Amino acid sequence: MGYQSDSEVFTHILHYTLKKLKLPLQAYKHIITPLSNAELENHPQGDFLSGLRQACKRLIIDGPNAVIGTLPDETCLLVMDQKKLRPATVGGREGAWAIASELCGVDALVPDRDPSLDFQPMREHTVIIPPHRKELEIWSQYDPFPLPQAA
Protein backbone atom coordinates (compact mmCIF):
# COMPACT_ATOMS: atom_id res chain seq x y z
CA MET A 1 0.00 0.00 0.00
CA GLY A 2 1.15 3.51 -0.72
CA TYR A 3 3.35 2.69 -3.71
CA GLN A 4 3.00 4.67 -6.92
CA SER A 5 4.26 1.99 -9.33
CA ASP A 6 5.25 -1.65 -9.60
CA SER A 7 8.82 -0.45 -10.27
CA GLU A 8 8.89 1.11 -6.82
CA VAL A 9 7.69 -2.15 -5.28
CA PHE A 10 10.37 -4.18 -7.09
CA THR A 11 13.04 -1.72 -5.95
CA HIS A 12 11.99 -1.92 -2.31
CA ILE A 13 11.88 -5.73 -2.41
CA LEU A 14 15.36 -5.79 -3.94
CA HIS A 15 16.66 -3.44 -1.24
CA TYR A 16 15.02 -5.59 1.45
CA THR A 17 16.57 -8.77 -0.02
CA LEU A 18 20.10 -7.37 -0.22
CA LYS A 19 20.29 -4.99 2.76
CA LYS A 20 17.85 -6.26 5.39
CA LEU A 21 17.95 -10.00 4.76
CA LYS A 22 21.59 -9.79 3.64
CA LEU A 23 20.99 -12.38 0.93
CA PRO A 24 22.82 -12.50 -2.40
CA LEU A 25 21.27 -11.11 -5.57
CA GLN A 26 20.24 -14.62 -6.64
CA ALA A 27 17.79 -14.79 -3.71
CA TYR A 28 15.74 -11.90 -5.14
CA LYS A 29 14.14 -14.20 -7.72
CA HIS A 30 13.20 -16.67 -4.98
CA ILE A 31 11.37 -13.92 -3.12
CA ILE A 32 9.38 -12.35 -5.95
CA THR A 33 8.59 -15.60 -7.82
CA PRO A 34 9.39 -18.61 -5.63
CA LEU A 35 9.55 -22.17 -6.92
CA SER A 36 6.59 -24.51 -6.37
CA ASN A 37 6.47 -26.96 -3.46
CA ALA A 38 7.33 -29.84 -5.82
CA GLU A 39 10.33 -27.94 -7.21
CA LEU A 40 11.52 -27.03 -3.72
CA GLU A 41 11.39 -30.69 -2.64
CA ASN A 42 14.14 -31.42 -5.18
CA HIS A 43 16.19 -28.26 -4.61
CA PRO A 44 19.46 -28.60 -2.63
CA GLN A 45 18.38 -25.60 -0.51
CA GLY A 46 14.69 -26.53 -0.46
CA ASP A 47 14.20 -26.24 3.31
CA PHE A 48 15.75 -22.77 3.44
CA LEU A 49 13.83 -21.61 0.37
CA SER A 50 10.53 -22.96 1.70
CA GLY A 51 11.06 -20.94 4.87
CA LEU A 52 12.03 -17.87 2.84
CA ARG A 53 8.91 -18.20 0.71
CA GLN A 54 6.72 -18.47 3.81
CA ALA A 55 8.41 -15.54 5.57
CA CYS A 56 8.23 -13.31 2.47
CA LYS A 57 4.92 -14.48 1.00
CA ARG A 58 3.51 -10.94 0.97
CA LEU A 59 6.37 -9.99 -1.38
CA ILE A 60 5.50 -12.54 -4.09
CA ILE A 61 4.75 -10.84 -7.40
CA ASP A 62 2.34 -12.71 -9.65
CA GLY A 63 3.24 -10.86 -12.88
CA PRO A 64 3.31 -10.34 -15.70
CA ASN A 65 6.61 -8.54 -15.20
CA ALA A 66 10.11 -8.35 -16.55
CA VAL A 67 12.27 -6.62 -13.96
CA ILE A 68 15.28 -4.71 -15.28
CA GLY A 69 17.42 -3.03 -12.68
CA THR A 70 20.76 -1.48 -11.86
CA LEU A 71 22.43 -1.64 -8.46
CA PRO A 72 24.57 1.15 -6.96
CA ASP A 73 27.75 -0.71 -8.01
CA GLU A 74 26.41 -0.68 -11.62
CA THR A 75 25.53 -4.39 -11.67
CA CYS A 76 22.56 -4.81 -14.02
CA LEU A 77 19.94 -7.53 -13.74
CA LEU A 78 17.02 -8.98 -15.63
CA VAL A 79 14.44 -11.20 -13.95
CA MET A 80 11.27 -12.70 -15.40
CA ASP A 81 8.18 -13.58 -13.42
CA GLN A 82 6.79 -17.12 -13.32
CA LYS A 83 4.26 -16.49 -16.10
CA LYS A 84 6.88 -15.00 -18.44
CA LEU A 85 4.23 -13.03 -20.31
CA ARG A 86 6.50 -10.00 -20.83
CA PRO A 87 9.29 -10.62 -23.32
CA ALA A 88 12.88 -9.70 -22.64
CA THR A 89 16.21 -10.50 -24.23
CA VAL A 90 19.80 -9.63 -23.51
CA GLY A 91 22.82 -9.60 -25.76
CA GLY A 92 26.07 -7.82 -26.40
CA ARG A 93 29.80 -8.17 -26.14
CA GLU A 94 32.52 -7.43 -23.63
CA GLY A 95 32.03 -3.84 -22.51
CA ALA A 96 28.55 -3.37 -24.03
CA TRP A 97 25.41 -5.29 -23.14
CA ALA A 98 21.79 -4.44 -23.88
CA ILE A 99 18.49 -5.56 -22.38
CA ALA A 100 15.40 -5.04 -24.53
CA SER A 101 11.95 -6.52 -24.99
CA GLU A 102 12.81 -7.83 -28.47
CA LEU A 103 15.93 -8.98 -30.32
CA CYS A 104 15.55 -6.04 -32.71
CA GLY A 105 16.17 -3.74 -29.73
CA VAL A 106 19.39 -5.55 -28.87
CA ASP A 107 20.34 -5.41 -32.58
CA ALA A 108 19.87 -1.65 -32.60
CA LEU A 109 21.83 -1.11 -29.39
CA VAL A 110 24.77 -3.50 -29.94
CA PRO A 111 24.88 -4.44 -33.63
CA ASP A 112 28.55 -5.58 -33.53
CA ARG A 113 28.00 -8.50 -31.17
CA ASP A 114 27.97 -12.28 -31.52
CA PRO A 115 24.22 -13.11 -31.72
CA SER A 116 24.93 -16.63 -30.46
CA LEU A 117 25.49 -15.02 -27.02
CA ASP A 118 21.99 -13.48 -27.01
CA PHE A 119 19.79 -14.91 -24.28
CA GLN A 120 16.06 -14.91 -23.69
CA PRO A 121 15.52 -15.81 -20.04
CA MET A 122 12.80 -18.19 -18.98
CA ARG A 123 10.79 -18.04 -15.77
CA GLU A 124 13.57 -19.44 -13.56
CA HIS A 125 16.44 -17.23 -14.77
CA THR A 126 18.20 -14.21 -13.41
CA VAL A 127 20.58 -12.51 -15.82
CA ILE A 128 23.34 -10.53 -14.13
CA ILE A 129 25.69 -8.16 -15.94
CA PRO A 130 28.57 -7.42 -13.54
CA PRO A 131 30.05 -3.90 -13.35
CA HIS A 132 33.13 -4.97 -15.34
CA ARG A 133 30.78 -5.74 -18.30
CA LYS A 134 32.96 -8.62 -19.52
CA GLU A 135 30.19 -11.22 -19.76
CA LEU A 136 26.69 -12.18 -18.73
CA GLU A 137 26.03 -14.36 -15.74
CA ILE A 138 22.96 -16.53 -16.17
CA TRP A 139 21.69 -17.99 -12.97
CA SER A 140 18.81 -20.44 -12.54
CA GLN A 141 16.57 -20.80 -9.51
CA TYR A 142 17.39 -24.49 -9.65
CA ASP A 143 21.02 -23.68 -8.82
CA PRO A 144 22.16 -23.31 -5.20
CA PHE A 145 23.50 -19.93 -4.08
CA PRO A 146 25.68 -18.85 -1.16
CA LEU A 147 23.67 -18.54 2.05
CA PRO A 148 24.63 -16.03 4.75
CA GLN A 149 26.63 -17.43 7.63
CA ALA A 150 24.96 -17.46 11.04
CA ALA A 151 26.41 -14.84 13.36
Question: In angstroms, what is the radius of gyration?
Answer: 16 Å
Mean pLDDT: 90
Distance between the termini: 33 Å
Shape: globular
Describe the biggest sheet?
4 strands, antiparallel
How many structurally independent domains? 1
Chart the SSEs and their pairings:
Blueprint lengths: L5 H15 L5 H7 L4 H5 L4 H10 L10 E5 L5 E5 L8 E5 L2 E5 L2 H7 L15 E5 L7 E4 L11
Antiparallel strand pairs: 1-2, 2-5, 3-4, 5-6
Description:
This protein is an alpha+beta fold and 151 residues long. The chain has one domain (6-140). 29% of the residues lie in helices and 19% in strands. The protein has 5 helices and 6 strands, in the order ααααββββαββ. It has helices spanning 6-20, 26-32, 37-41, 46-55, 103-109, and strands at residues 66-70, 76-80, 89-93, 96-100, 125-129, 137-140. The protein has a 4-stranded antiparallel beta sheet with strand order 1-2-5-6, covered by helices on one side. A two-stranded antiparallel sheet has the order 3-4. A hairpin with a 2-residue loop joins strand 3 and strand 4. Helix 1 (6-20) crosses helix 2. The longest helix is centred in the first third of the chain and has 15 residues, at 6-20. It is globular and about 45 Å long. The mean pLDDT is 90.
